[in-house]
Structures are given as C-alpha cells and as structure tokens.
Amino acid sequence: MNYISTRGQVEPKGFIDTVLMGLGEDGGLMVPETIPSVSAETLNKWKGLEFRELFIEIFSLYANGEIPENDLKELVDASYASFRDPEVTPVRKLNDSLYILELFHGPTFAFKDVALQFMGEFYSYVSKTRGEIIHILGATSGDTGAAAIQGVRGKEGIKICILHPHEKVSKVQELQMTTVNDKNVLNLSVKGNFDDCQRIIKELFSDLSFKGEHHLRAINSINFVRILAQTVYYFYAYFRVSDQLGSDAASKKINVSVPSGNFGNIFSGFLAKKMGLPINKLIIATNENNILERFVQTGEYRPGEFRKTHSPSMDIQVASNFERYLYYLLDEDSAKVSDYMAQLASEGRIFVEGELLERVQSELHALGAKNEQGLELIRKYKSEYDYLLDPHTACGVAAYEAFNEEGEVTAAFATAHPAKFDEAVRLINIVQEFPVQIAELVAKDQFQTVIENDKAEVTRQLEAFFAGDTVSKA
C-alpha cells in the first residue's frame, strides 16, 4: 500500500516515508491509496484479541511489511509497558446504555498517550535502523505536548520542540510539559491560542527548504500514524462493549461519542468504520468552540471567535484533520479538495449543501456542549454513579444524552483523567484524590521559554535548538 496527499500533488510514498514526511509537501494530508476492508470473519477473529495483539493486526494492514513482525511486536510492547491498566484502554459500564472507554491510563493520563507512546518508540526505531535525524516539531492544546515529550525524552538521535498557548492550558498540562529538563526537549510558550501555534507549525512544515534542512518530523495528528494508532481503540471498544452486552449484543446498535476538537480522534473512528467496523453513530462532542457542530448542522465550515473553556484541549477553531474527512466526502477528488482549501484560505469559510450536506449528516452527529452543561454533568455522574468525568469526557456524555436512542448503546470516550483539570472540578465543590504522578508535579522546577506569537521568533529558537545534532546508523 502506498500513501498519497489529499491535494494530489505528492508522488505515492511508502509507510515509513509517509510518517517521516508528516504534512504532505503540497500542503495536504497523507492518506492511504485504498483503505483496507476487514471482513465479518476477520472481525470475529479479532474480537478476542488483547489490545496489543489487535494493534499489531490493524497496523500490519497499513505498514506494507516495512517493519518486521518481531520488531513491530517489540515496539508495541515497549509502547504500552508503562500503562497502568493491563487492558491499556478498558471499558466500564455506567448504565444500560452508556459505557466509558477509558483512554487515560498512559503516563500522562490522556488519550494522546495511546498513539504518542508508540510514535516515540517508532521514531527511535527509524532513527536507529535508517540513520535518520529526527527533529520533532509539534503544537499542543495541552495533552499532545506532554504525551509526545514523555514518548521521546532522553532518546538518542531525537530532539523535540513543542509549542503551547501561554496560560491557555490547565496547570497540570503545563507542568507535565515544562517540568521535563532533558536536553532533547524544548518547550515554547506562545502568547496566543492553539490555532496560532498550529498555524506556525503548518507554515514551517510547508517551507520545504527549512523542513529538509532541519529534518522536521510531525507529532501532531497531521501525521497519519497518529490516526492509525487511535483507530485501534475503536475496534477494541466495540468488541468490549459487545462482550459486556452478552446475549443482547445482536439486538443493540453501538454508537461512539468522542470529544474531538482537531477532528483527529473522530476521523480515526471514521477510518475504522470505512474499514468495516459496524459502528452505528459517529458522534462528535465539542465545546463552545463549536466549528465542527456548525459544520455538521449547517454545512458551513468557518472558524469563529476563540473561546476559553473548561475543556481547553478542544479550544480549537481550525480543525486540521477536517481536510481528510473532506477528501472522502468529495469521493477522493483531490482537485476539488484543493479548490475547497484554497477557498478556505482566501475567504475564511467553505460551505457544502444539498446531497453533500445530507451525506455529512448521515455520517456524523455533533454537539457543542456549554461550559455549565459540562459542569452539571460532572456533578450528576459523580452523584448517580460515583464516576468522576473530566470536562472533555463530560462533553462526550452530553452528546451521548442528546443522540442515544432506543435500541442503541454508546461508548463515550474518556479522553483524560479528571485530575488534569482540577480547576474545573473544584468549581462544583468536588475534591478529588490526585494520582501520585500528578501530585508530585507542583514541587518540580519548570523549564520553558515564553515567546511572542511570531513565526520568526519560533524559527530562531528552533535553529538554535537543533544546531549541530547528528546521528549514526546502528
């Protein structure tokens, strides 16, 4: 299998070269030429697999044999060795129609660990086996940065720089990034919002001369391996919910409700469904930065006014993975995708209507939960089920309550541990016990550079940080 750009101007690439490229050289996003189709018989075989085994099966469909089977197994085992639950992503039943997929058992207590611990091991593997210099550059709304840093800190042949919006992430998210003092880690705190950070990253990756000179590699979900790794837990959640339904499984439809600000997490579910996983409803949960809800409801994709919320990881107005969905919505017509993205750049909006909008609404449901609604649901579910939601998961539960119907059950994705967002939890007078790994952060020194929202300043910081790095082939 080869990989191509959504904008059609990149020669087909192999799997490893696609991962190293990150953003397509034409500004598009890389996708597989064809999506593997998984039969009902194969799904039945996969149903009893453990998470690590399932990961290998799915990943192997996309990797073209470029990673030997034994090497892949070692990478997967190393990636999930630090997870606190042996299931990696366990499923908890809250009531007869709601199940929670817990994605926060990795080292930084957020769903990003599932993909980024693997990406760290993968980049280290490529550095050693191919002699590649790996200079990782990424932007974060809070969780990606911590997970990415944890995945590569101290690894030989790799340096990582993460941009985060200054004072617009939770305190725990900030501490998880900035208390790391490894020489291969640089944290830049940008006086702007996440969209500003993401824009600078995309501009730097689009500068092919700068990208090549400094060996830039992507850690954000513009990189297809992030999407692929996340696809695994959709299959896993579906299988585990089916198991818990028992004899009722045949009569129930299974939905997923997914907090998703950058469209990466929900696109992984879209990919899983296109592969053949019989998900019923793909439900996007957002907050008051509700560009995705507005698109699904009206067909208009237009960044609005940025709003700071209790769920800061979704405080995003420009969803970078939206282009991948648009590619499939337009029946893989890269010329049309290019036209739409050019229109977005020039006019600040795009619009789909008629049959295209009907198709969007048949494929996706979306809800933008309000701040107070999220807090009320945290209070409600703690009281009724003694289960503490984080603010992002609360948005997912709000969407479940809006869209789950008779004969359906929903797996709502718990994308972070509530301890990461104690500022919100304390607003409703709930006192939680912090995991020791989080409680210890406040006593540590911080290491970060606060900079203006200025691409030129980011460039200067990167050039100084990356200077003189070399790697020898193993």
UniProtKB/TrEMBL annotation:
Catalytic activity: O-phospho-L-homoserine + H2O = L-threonine + phosphate
Function: Catalyzes the gamma-elimination of phosphate from L-phosphohomoserine and the beta-addition of water to produce L-threonine.
Alphabetized UniProt keyword annotations: Amino-acid biosynthesis, Lyase, Pyridoxal phosphate, Threonine biosynthesis
Pathway where it operates: Amino-acid biosynthesis; L-threonine biosynthesis; L-threonine from L-aspartate: step 5/5
Gene3D superfamilies: 3.40.50.1100, Threonine synthase, N-terminal domain
Family to which the UniProt record says this protein belongs: Belongs to the threonine synthase family.
EC number: 4.2.3.1
InterPro entries: Ser/Thr_deHydtase_PyrdxlP-BS, Thr_synth_N, Thr_synth_N_sf, Thr_synthase-like, Threonine_Synthase, TrpB-like_PALP, TrpB-like_PALP_sf
Protein species of origin: Saccharibacillus kuerlensis
Keyword Lipoprotein annotated: no
PANTHER family recorded: THREONINE SYNTHASE FAMILY MEMBER, THREONINE SYNTHASE-LIKE 2
Domain Tryptophan synthase beta chain-like PALP: from-to ranges: 92-354
Stretches assigned to the Threonine synthase N-terminal domain: 2-80
Co-factor(s): pyridoxal 5'-phosphate
Protein's UniProt name: Threonine synthase
